[in-house]
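S.,

Sequence below, as promised.
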Amino acid sequence: MASTILLKRRIGSIRNTRQITKAMELVAASKMRRAQDQALSSRSYRDETYGLLTRLSTISEVTRQPLFSVRPVRTRLYVVITSNSGLAGAYNANVLKMLTQEVIKDRDNGIKSQVIAVGNKGAQFARRTESIDLIAVYSAFGDSPSANDLRPILNTIVEKYLKQEIDQVRLIYTLFKSNLVQLTTQTNLMPASVDDGHENHDGFTNFEPDIESVLHYTGLRLIEAQLWQAVLEGLASEQSARMLAMKNATDNAGELIDEYTLEFNTARQAAITQELAEISGGVEAMKD
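The prediction came back faster than expected:
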């Protein structure tokens, strides 16, 4: 049985750890509420962008626009959204697992894989993986990212796609469902496309200033909206995962404190009983 001094030190150490995890849980909960509001409020903007593109997709000129052109995939670029720090449960691990699966498929099919990492965790993984070409790293954009924060990423992928240095861009991120459920998912970012689930509408008849400009800038806004929404979804998912992980850590610390306290009381009682026995034995020896 461990000594009472050692048990007392363990209990004190676990209590200190529980205070830290509880504080981190509260901070994550506060950030999660703001991130969740941002993610939910911007979904309507993304959906409206999808709706506009659906209408434009009925036009034959779409296939001749560079942002919409589809070509055989020889080089695929992944934009991977992770966090800067850990202690967020399986948030980063799930994203990197999906990236690994896709890179393995590309390697088997003779496709080169490039990565733009948003967050240090994704960058650290890409640097350690031999078959991944890491071309850019962007630290997380804080709790309230703006479109200007994402503009360098947008400019990079559009420039590389128009120069045909890459043939397809995929976005890997975590979709926020609820405080307990976050779904790791991927979507094709380029060539610009629209989900099949949207209803078709009659095409426009008049375009200002011209159809090429409308298609080009609409495609850019679609890509930007998808990228921005993915970052917001990732922020909400990260804080939800961190809050849940810290809550579990706090609960586990409480259970450990209870177990060690019981063991401490048992050890102390055993020591007291032994001391009483020794005193009694001494008294009896003195009588003799």
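The CA atoms of residues 25 and 161 lie 41 Å apart.

Coffee later?
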